Amino acid sequence: MDTEPQFFDQPGGYVGKPLVRVEGREKVTGKAKYAAEFALPGLTYGVFTTSPIAKGKITRIDTSAAAREPGVLAVLTHQNLPKLAKTPNDPQGKKDIGAPMGFLPLTGDEIFYAAQPVALVVADTLEHATHAATLVQVSYQKSEPLANFKQPKAELFDPEKVQDGKQKGHTRRGEPQAAFASAPIQLTATYNHPVYNHNPMEPGSTTAHWEAPDRLTIYESTQGVTRTQSAVAAMTGMPREQIRVITKYLGGGFGCKGATWPHTILTVQAAKAVGRPVKLMLTREQMFTSMGHREDQEQVMQLGATADGKLTSLVHTKKSTTSPWDNYAEPNSKIVDLLYASPTFESSYELARANVMTSTFMRAPGEAPGSFAIECSMDDLAYRVGVDPIEIRLRNYADHDYGTGQPWSSKSLKQCYARGAELFGWNKRNPKPGATRDGRYLVGMGMASASYPVHNSSGTARARLYADGHAVVQAGATDLGTGTYTVMTQVAADSLGLPIEKVRFELGDTLLPTAPNSGGSVAAGTVSSSVYLACQDVWQKLIKAAVIDRKSPLYRAKPEDVAVEKGRLFLKKDPKKGEAFGELMKRGEMTDIEGMAQGKYGSGYEDTAAAKNADPTQKDQAGHHSMHSFGAHFCEVRVDMDLGTIRVSKWVSVIGAGRILNAQTARSQIIGGAIFGIGSALMEETIRDQNFSRYTNADLAGYHVPVNADIPDMTVEFVEEHDPHINAMGVKGIGEIAMVGVAAAVANAVYHATGKRLRDLPLTPDKVLMAGLNS
Amino acid sequence: MNNFAYTQAASTKEATTAKEADKQAAFIGGGTTLLDIMKSNIEQHTLLIDINKLALLGITNAAEGLRIGALERMSDVGEHPQVVQNYPVISQALLASASPQLRNMASMGGNLLQKTRCGYYRDTAFPCNKRVPGSGCPAQQGDNRNLAIFGTSPSCIATNASDLAVALVALEAKLTLENPKGATRTVPLADFYKLPGSTPHLENHLLPGELITAITVPAAAHARKSHYLKVRDRASYAYALVSAAVGLDVQGGTIRSARVALGGVGTVPWRVPAVEKALVGKAPTEDNFRAAAALAVRDAQPREHNKFKVELAQRTLVRALVEVI
Ligand SMILES: Cc1cc2nc3c(=O)[nH]c(=O)nc-3n(C[C@H](O)[C@H](O)[C@H](O)COP(=O)(O)OP(=O)(O)OC[C@H]3O[C@@H](n4cnc5c(N)ncnc54)[C@H](O)[C@@H]3O)c2cc1C
Ligand code: SF4
Predict the structure, then answer these.
(1) How far apart are CA A287 and CA A205, in angstroms?
(2) Integer-rounded Cα radius of gyration of chain B
(3) Which distant-in-sequence residues (6+ apart) come within 8 Å of B81 by Cβ?
(4) How many CB atoms lie within 10 A of CB A675?
(5) What is the pLDDT of residue A611?
(6) How far, in Å, are A126, A142, A361, A399 from residue A264 at the CA level?
(7) Contact A709/B311, CB-based, under 8 Å?
(8) Count: domains in chain B
(9) Using CA atoms, how far apart are residues A740 and A534, in angstroms rounded to an integer?
(10) What are the mean pLDDT values of chain A's consecutive 10-residue runs (775 residues total)?
(11) What DSSP string runs through A376-423?
């Protein structure tokens, strides 16, 4: 394929239109079955007993009282958990499993973190299991836990690589320290992030059903059925094809369902032990300690610039807390390196082990906190130089990727700034901080840039077209609740030239063709490309059938001379000559025909082979182009300096992310991401007690996410962008970019309102108040 | 959660005698506190006595004051025209509490007996003197940002989380209590709550089997000109960092009477008579408010993370007073 898919603007086309969700009715009528809603015959319920302490040893565990309770079928502990072929407890096992955490509870007597599962009770009802779980008697030998990297006893170390070995810890271009030392403007600032938890609406859950000793079906709340399948295969030692994983609907994930966490395999083992299907649903409280979190971290951002604000040096360091086993840290430095035209750059990471579970990717991992540091510091630079925050960014505009030296596949950031400023009314902004009032409120306007990479990914899809004019299209993808069902149906309908109600898109099952994990914003681009190409494969097969069919008007034409539009095959040179696919198929007695294809990162319509043979360690640079989406957020806040409260009163996001598949679901994604970011800026925080290394607000009354009253009307626009390099559909993905830069835009607006620079998130009333007092 | 029996009381007598007979029994109103507490294994009740069928209803405003049945729902009271008009501080405190769904379920009596949101109390893995007497108070050296600066003790610094109670204490409301013998008594709400002292698990003066049947609030000019201001971490659906309930009777440019109580800062709803006294006879100006508010925090005993409340309490109070005039 060498041209951009062009069906979109055709009359009757669906792609890009604000179509309502195809699965909306199922959801609002309760028919949509989420992972924990499969009522299997003989279903039993699993409930964890968890450790009250964060560090120590189990000295005695007495399950007899729990086992005596009515309905209890089994109490699993480290003493009787059915043996696994592999655990993540050693580095090789962890790698083979693809486990996010190098430790599986119930495999030993040591306690590493608070709320670590120590027993799994299975009973005939949830109530019996819940009660019995409280009756498991465990004695511990306690040790003093470590709560975070800031404690005096914490030992910081250089991890060399971060994000579980996936990213380099050290990067350096040029001589940033020397450049900094000689820079006319030198800015150094420290930024702090607390622990954040994903808290999707739907908690994690697993229902494991051993249909036969060699047939296991798992209903899982996961962002990737294939990844769950391969993890469980590795741990059980079963061939993958004996394991089926199903996720038809997901109530959000934000990264915490991107990998396979302990509860999944423990439920599988429990089902094996009791010989009946077992369902385990994590409680909200357990969601804070079972599926990862965003780690608490401190960033130091050093920025050197010329007197007129041109960057000469960027130096970024990050310190954060990690678990006893893993070197996980979000790679914040990537976006710091990427956004601006700095001739020199350096980054490094330090970690300290503490008694916490392993942190994991959370919406825009690295980009979200990294952008907070660089985008606040760029704002500082603008004030220091005395130019508009947009102007400072334009002065440092990166016309290519300075980190890799590659050209951008496409970049619309300038348009995003310009359009955002226009929609927002940026020109009405008084440049002076602390100078705009509305009654009791100080009013501030801030902005920030956003960017998110198009990650390496590939996946397959299958399209089956029936002669009677309907189609079933499949890919083992996940719909996180964001609209995958809908947009893929749109792409398939347009690609096959069928009315949308004649197309059914199926996903969320390992029996279907393999799609990538829905994470890293790859699903829309990869799956839509594979769907589109699978449909093209259908046409290629039909064209081949037509040119050898004596009765076809296309008989003996060369396949490459035949085109297809809206289901009609015709000669390119003589469009009158042709026929509808239905006629061709009926004549040939074909009830259906199937196409299959792989959609791939870097395999765009001008660059089809680019991603092949890529160096696996440099996958994201495989396309000869640096591929990213870009955007800009604009925020207005009203700050009550007396009471310390901040309210966001206006919001504009403008994003350039390649082709937008559905104007409505895309807008929802951006709104959702921006609200996620506003939450992290103003209120979200998981509080870990310093002495117990245990959370004190592990519920949704104490962990505040924004409510409607916190959010104003939001304006979202997309810049039209045609990117020939990224993938067949030219779709970059928007799940994460919406959150990048959001906290900075809010903090920048707060600075503009008050003249106070707040760098410790979240910006709660106490911090605003104290900042006001200390001046 | 443990297994428990459930019974629906047909009369107050039935309810109170059942409660007296079983020390582990609990009344259940809306259940919005009780169920959470039971599900988290903080309390284990063997019997729940459902009081929702009892005739503890009615919102009546007479010359002498307001009477609210203990089973009236927070939403009904908060939106009642008589309450909105004559006791705005009560309406505003209620409507700034929890969420609409919770307010539709929750009863007035239950609200006044809700449990603290201290994170250590809510998680049985932690020690906590209030939950397990003598086990310790990790909040003193730990996460105390949301906890009290008034009425604290070395045993406990938990805040009373009710917004309603702050408004009611300011207006000198009284509770009507009925005992298993069918006798009733009235207690000023301010005297109903106990300071933690060395027994933080004893939170109030309810006697065995006693049931709250009604709340009465005396009519007053300062009640009509009253206001509730709540400062919190998000715009809605969050407990108070600090709140202020104020009522003023201003005549001819002079404050004749004042009522002031603070929330989010006290182990019990914190009325501040010194501020009230300082305001009476003064002109209702921001300067006078500020001078008076400073008196509110004289006895504050902040911990590491709640120092800000000393300042925020004064400012919230000043703002509430400014807004009420
Ligand atoms: C997420 C969340 C947020 C909240 N936010 C707020 C807030 O911002 N502000 C606020 O003020 N509150 C808030 N609340 C608390 C809420 O207002 C209380 O849970 C509610 O008012 C309790 O009323 P209820 O009828 O449901 O009580 P129940 O749960 O039924 O009972 C509570 C207690 O009172 C006892 N009881 C009930 N009625 C009587 C009676 N008549 N006589 C004697 N004893 C009785 C019960 O035995 C029990 O011990 C919140 C609650 C939740 C869950
Ligand atoms: S403040 Fe009170 S409720 Fe909180 S831990 Fe201490 S004793 Fe328990």
Answers:
(1) 10
(2) 19
(3) none
(4) 21
(5) 40
(6) 17, 28, 18, 46
(7) no
(8) 1
(9) 33
(10) 60 87 95 96 98 98 98 98 97 97 98 98 97 97 98 96 84 96 98 98 98 98 97 98 98 97 98 98 98 98 98 98 96 96 97 98 97 98 98 98 94 98 98 96 98 93 97 97 96 95 97 92 92 96 96 96 93 96 96 95 67 46 82 98 97 97 97 98 98 98 97 97 92 95 98 98 97 80
(11) HHHHHHHHHHTS-HHHHHHHTB-SS-TTT-PPBS---HHHHHHHHHHH
Q: Which ligand has the shortest distance to the CA of B135? A: 2
Domain that holds residue A687: 368-455+620-773
Tell me whether residue A311 is in a domain. Answer: no
Domain membership of residue B270 (yes or no) is yes
Torsion of CA A549, A555, A557, A562, to 10 degrees: -70
* DSSP result, A449-511: EEEEE----EEEEEEEEETTS-EEEE------SSSHHHHHHHHHHHHHT--GGGEEEE-SBTT
Q: Are B73 and B80 in contact (CB under 8 A)?
A: no
B256 touches chain A (CB under 8 A): no
Q: Does residue A634 share a domain with residue A496?
A: no
Residue A562, phi then psi, degrees to nearest 5: -100, 135
| B284 interface with A at CB cutoff 8 Å | no
Cis amide leading into A516 (omega within 30): no
Strands A278-281 and A205-212: antiparallel
Count structural domains, chain A: 2
> Do A463 and A451 fall within a single domain?
no
C-alpha A348/C-alpha B76 separation (Å) is 58
For A11, residues 6+ apart whose C-beta sits below 8 A from its C-beta are none
> Helix or strand or coil: residue A170?
coil
**CA distance linking residue B297 with residue A261, whole number of Å:** 49
How far is it, in rounded angstroms, from Cα A118 to Cα B244? Answer: 45
Cβ-Cβ contacts under 8 Å, A52 against chain B = 124-126
| Residue B289 resides in a domain | yes
H-assigned helices in A77-199: 91-97, 126-133, 176-181
Structural contact between residues B227 and B89, judged by C-beta atoms closer than 8 angstroms: yes
Q: At what angle do helices A765-773 and A742-754 cross, to 10 degrees?
A: 40
CATH number at residue A573: 3.30.365.10
Partner-chain residue, chosen from B41, B231, B238, that has the shortest CB–CB distance to A704: B238
Same domain, A667 and A732: yes
CA nearest to A700, candidates B229, B104, B75, B237: B237
Give B324's Cβ-side CA count (13 Å radius).
Answer: 32
For the entire predicted model, the pTM comes to 0.97
Q: Are A19 and A500 in contact (CB under 8 A)?
A: yes
CB pairs under 8 A between A and B: 99
Residue A211 bears catalytic tag: no
Residue spans of alpha helices (H) in chain B: 12-21, 34-39, 74-78, 81-86, 88-95, 100-105, 108-112, 163-170, 189-192, 221-224, 273-279, 286-296, 308-324
CB burial of A704-714 (b: ≥16 within 10 Å; e: otherwise) equals bbbeeebbbeb
Q: Check which CATH number belongs to the domain holding B250 and give it.
A: 3.30.390.50
The pLDDT value recorded for residue A617 is 47
Same domain, yes or no, for A499 and A380?
no
Whether A542 and A519 map to the same domain: the answer is yes
Mutation for B interface: A49, A288, A642, most B CBs within 10 A: A642
Domain limits for position B312 = 222-324
Task: Give the position, in ligand 2's atom list, of the atom nearest the Cα of B138.
Answer: 5
Structure tokens that stand for A573 in this block: 């040179």
Neighbours of A591 (CB within 10 A): 10
User: Do A652 and A757 reside in the same domain of the chain?
Assistant: yes
Q: Round to whole Å and give the CA distance between A295 and A759.
A: 17
Q: A648 forms bridges with which residues in the sheet? A: A637
Helix (H) or strand (E) holding A528: helix A523-547
